């Protein structure tokens, strides 16, 4: 179940919990790659409650989780408690679902929400800047936007850099190494309307692509599009 369109006005977050001896590498990775990995909160090792949602447990609050071992996906539980380790450091990373209410308010349609689907996400050929043992490609989310509204979408989202900010591209998907816009790597294929063009934003699923490439021994993430919904209002991440 995607959380797209499910919590209008509330900030949503990507989640990754990684062993403490890898946490500095990941923190450095987010610092070097703030576009796909804008950090909203970092918990102490073993901590399970974030200041962004004080009545929720990070092990149970997302609709679905992913369990990773040596870069391989081994389980997708709805509850990650049985997989939890006391050495895990949890990072909450900005999510583009947070700026969707602002897009709708500006008159920009959300095709994936209208079609009751998850947003399309693609692994690009853009390599993130490595950090320690971590390396891998940037993932982007894609929304079909009427061509006449692309500039508005750019302006609205540029004001929210903590949740990925302005698009990283629009138009020809091949500029990002995407061969088939109708076959996403994560999420659902979305049907465009006449006059729509694909617009791409850096995506917080990037850490999952990095896990696949870097192969740390263990990690827990949310399932793509099934986010950790916070109590923070989306406008808290608007600048200007």
UniProtKB/TrEMBL annotation:
Record-linked InterPro entries: D-Glu_cyclase (IPR009906), Putative_hydro-lyase (IPR038021), UPF0317 (IPR016938)
Keyword Repressor included in the entry's annotation: no
Top-rank taxon: Bacteria
Keywords: Lyase
Pfam families: D-Glu_cyclase
Similarity remark: Belongs to the D-glutamate cyclase family.
Stated name of the protein: Hydro-lyase
